[in-house]
Amino acid sequence: MKILFYSFGLFLLFVSVIEAQDTKVDILLEKVQQSKTKEEKNILISELKVELARINKKARDESNAIIDAKKKLPSKPFNVQNIIK
User: Which residues are within 8 A (CB) of 85 and not within 5 positions of it... i.e. 6 or more apart?
Assistant: First the structure.
């Protein structure tokens, strides 16, 4: 019972921390919305584009790694009897 409460507490902490995180993209977007001059907006938008491109590249690399790992998995299930023979 104690383990159940402990794991539930950790779960709540994990969920609250995940939702509370401000990413660099959120901060840049807020700065763009608060900027007053057009030049400042253009500079912040270009920074935002670079940050989004970096995040997109990272996600693309991770997805390609997952696809490559899936290709290496055997297509047929493992059969113990083949090893015993």
Answer: none
| Token digits of residue 38 | 């057009």
Q: Up-side HSE of residue 45: CA atoms within 13 Å toward CB?
A: 8
For residue 67 the two structure tokens come to: 């696809």
* pLDDT confidence band for 81 (50 / 70 / 90): confident
- Region 13-25: what's the mean pLDDT? 63
pLDDT tens per residue, range 56-68: 999 999 999 999 9
Determine the residue type at 65.
A
> Could you tell me the pTM of the whole model?
0.58
- Ordered by start, the domain boundaries in the chain are 36-69
Q: Check residue 72 and give left, alpha or beta (phi > 0: left; psi -120 to 50: alpha).
A: alpha
Grouping H, G, I as helix, E, B as strand and the rest as coil, residue 35 is coil
Q: Provide the token pair at 7.
A: 């794991």
